[in-house]
Amino acid sequence: MGHGRTFLDGKIICYPPGVKEITDKITNDEVVKRLKMVVKTFMDMDQDSEDEKQQYLPLALHLASEFFLRNPNKDVRLLVACCLADIFRIYAPEAPYTSHDKLKDIFLFITRQLKGLEDTKSPQFNRYFYLLENLAWVKSYNICFELEDCNEIFIQLFRTLFSVINNSHNQKVQMHMLDLMSSIIMEGDGVTQELLDSILINLIPAHKNLNKQAFDLAKVLLKRTVQTIEPCIANFFNQVLVLGKPSVSDLSEHVFDLIQELFAIDPHLLLSVMPQLEFKLKSNDGEERLAVVRLLAKLFGSKDSDLATQNRPLWQCFLGRFNDIHVPVRLESVKFASHCLMNHPDLAKDLTEYLKVRSHDPEEAIRHDVIVTIITAGKRDLSLVNDQLLGFVRERTLDKRWRVRKEAMMGLAQLYKKYCLHAEAGKDAAEKVSWIKDKLLHIYYQNSIDDKLLVEKIFAQYLVPHNLETEERMKCLYYLYASLDPNAVKALNEMWKCQNMLRSHVRELLDLHKQPTVRGVARAPPEPGSGQLWRREIARKLANPKQPTNPFLEMVKFLLERIAPVHIDSEAISALVKLMNKSIEGTADDEEEGVSPDTAIRAGLELLKVLSFTHPTSFHSAETYESLLQCLRMEDDKVAEAAIQIFRNTGHKIETDLPQIRSTLIPILHQKAKRGTPHQAKQAVHCIHAIFSNKEVQLAQIFEPLSRSLNADVPEQLITPLVSLGHISMLAPDQFASPMKSVVANFIVKDLLMNDRSTGEKNGKLWSPDEEVSPEVLAKVQAIKLLVRWLLGMKNNQSKSANSTLRLLSAMLVSEGDLTEQKRISKSDMSRLRLAAGSAIMKLAQEPCYHEIITPEQFQLCALVINDECYQVRQIFAQKLHKALVKLLLPLEYMAIFALCAKDPVKERRAHARQCLLKNISIRREYIKQNPMANEKLLSLLPEYVVPYMIHLLAHDPDFTKPQDVDQLRDIKECLWFMLEVLMTKNENNSHAFMKKMAENIKLTRDAQSPDEPKANEKLYTVCDVALCVINSKSALCNADSPKDPVLPTKFFTQPEKVILTVHLPEEKSFFIPKPTGVLGAVNKPLSATGRRPYIRSTGSETGSNISVNSELSSPAGNRSRYVGDFYMGSKYWDVLVWGFLFVEEENIIWGGWQISPPAHTSKGHIPPRPLPGCMKWWEPPHSHG
Description:
- By secondary structure, the protein is an all-alpha fold.
- The chain has a domain at 889-1078.
- It contains 54 helices and nine strands.
- A hairpin with a 2-residue loop joins strand 5 and strand 6.
- The longest helix is centred in the middle third of the chain and has 29 residues, at 486-514.
- The relative contact order is 0.02.
- Pfam families: PDS5 (PF20168).
- Keywords: Cell cycle, Cell division, Mitosis, Nucleus, Repeat.
- It is found in: Nucleus.
């Protein structure tokens, strides 16, 4: 029986034994003391103690009174809460409290006490834990389901538990919290939005970062209750995403963050939400689509996600956003692809086609990110990206935007270094990206300096890393060079040559700076026309080198980076030579590196040959030269030839510093000059000339026995001696010019060229491979080259030998290669000789003293080689012509030869010729801009000055025999337009008017080649008329004043005369100038041959000019007339058959130098003209209307 009695609503309150009455009359400490005993009593009771339950029922009701629930002492509140929790346990399933309001107050009171769980170090924490454990085990809160406003209690409970959980709690605390909350969710009738918000708010990134334990608690709770809570979650997202009711929850603005977190927790939580996202992907709002794409990118791309396979419709809809009209959406889609490729390689096939389209996206940022996406995945694992994806990156190395090109090039370089140099994924991966090295070096051919500089940087950092040890670095370079394709090798060689040239320029600049007068130069006043303007500017900047933000200093640093030989020094060359020796001995790792020993040796020699040009001082060691001597003794002709060339480039100090090498080298060079291959002989002679001081003696020891042993009956033994003799006579003309003259007269011309000792094979072929050409023809070709070299060495025509040689070469061209005309030589051999003769004339023309004596007839014969019947002759001749022109070695008139390429039946040849023209014209214009002194030589440099040469050349075309023949005129027009189209791409300095003026001025002269021959002059004027016709029809700017009066070459045209000019185009048939097209249009687009119109000139003899009337009037009418079909039509159209240009302009029709008044009545047909005083003519039509 308990002690301490009091009354509650007439019932006796019985306290446990030893517990006195608890009232507000006692102190808090006493209340706590007595409550602890009460707590102990209730803790020890169980549900089967019916007597005690009845005994203590009033006490249980008393503990729920306001005195206890509102008590300010937290210890009192805690003890009361523990008692109440036990009371719910003891009296379960029926609570002793019947009032709903009282129950609500009790559970809110208990919930508030649970906040004490936060401090695990509190002395009372165990009691708080007991309270939580009791509530969770009994599921006491489930009583609240009977209350109407139970949701308020649950929300408060959930918020409390999520707020108090922290990292100091053990797993038991978390489990009891989960049990408590999950029972409420799973045993209730549903989860309200407010209660759901109290869970979901812990998933938002901001809250997640503040309380990681609350996030983990919510995560586990959602996983445990997924079946029950999923419909509630679906309803929430349906309200916000589909119905557009963001007011249903304060978390509406975080829906996409919530979806991402819920998907990561358990995709089943979103079973009904995913179709809603598909709906959102098709929203009309770009920003909304962007948000959904960002979300789905995370869902599809997460590592363990199988959403793409589980929900194919949503995946396909998402892929469609790669083609979204909104740029940020496409950009986000592309960024996603990288994670997707890395986490889900099986989806690469789906992504490839969409990335292909985006790699050509008009937006630079998207193309850039496509590259980043592919490269990022490739660097993670090369197997993640297929060849097609790598191909997209390869294409972007030629993107129009520098940022994209740079990203593509750097990305490929990183892949190459990782998988080829470091071999991180084995041989298969290395083979997959082996093409990268070639592609990156090919980019050096691009015009942009940025591309070139980046290739240099990539080569130094990725292809052959400069920070490797010397032996490793050279091994890398050795096998890289051996495995490059021919174009990549050329690009790498060009890169080294450019760096070498830059080193040379910087060296000259430093030498200039060392001069004591440099600072004086910097302060000196400008001297107009002097060549020291640029020096003065540089010197001025050098004089102030310590400015903090001096861009000139930055340029100096940049130059040092480019010119520093970070790869090559004497030690590196020595290592390279040792590698090559190992390849020769068969002890190298050639096969393991994927290169055959022969290929490695040849490539190594070629590499050393290039480096001998760019880094000659690095070769100067006995060890290196000993290895090269070993190469000279090898049977491989190419290897020996390269070794000789290396000696030639680097051996300047051999004679003084390495006498042993010298004594070994001399007999080898003599042997190669006498009995080696033609290429070896050439290099041997040049090597002797370059590195020995007694070169005259050495060359004489070769020349004399060779000149005496020449025998035309054994042509196969002639080729090497002819090569050696030719180069000796060119290098030492003072010593050998006279002896060579007798060799030329008695043997070369008389015995070799003027005799056909063998009969060629009559197979009808126009060309044969080199190995099938007869030794006699090869000897004759070398004989022609010998003549040229001999003349180039002399550089004078005092003995008239050049005239004789030119006549001989011309005769060979006239006879089509069969100089003896005995018809014993085959067609393919004749082709070889024609090519040799034409090339010889072109080579002589590069020397000014010989260019002067080449007659127009000889020039024309040379030009016609480009129209040779043999394709290979045309091809090789055009290449030689272009090579000489682009180096500015040939006079400008030789560029006119390309006009004849319009006749070439092969489209590729015409396209090549056009590219050659573009390159040549561009180089000449750039040269004039960069060199102010070039203005004094405009006649030989300005591309437009090719027009008179072209006109004269076409006037003497053998195919142009009848000036009135329309078909022949059509060919002339095609040739003219072939050249003029490229020249008229830009109207620089009013060049159109300048070219027109030149053509007009030619009609005031006569043909200097045949000044008194009427037909020759008629043909010349006819070509001028066609040229004027073309210029007028293609340019509206040609009627402006010419910037200067053009100068015509006196070699081809006589001095201007005052003559009455007439039109030399056919009158009976029309001559059509086609409708203007873009000057950069198709190279070989066939031109219409119907309805050709002539260019009709006025007879204005008073001023002596030959300006056409229609060309003067076409410009003012430009805003009122237009070109339609065969006529220019304006406000009125006069439908008559007329000949010439027809302009309809308001009330007058201007046409080809004739003026016609608008008719009232006229019939179609011929209307006889009536002259008007002066130079104009007009007619008045009859009054009958036709």
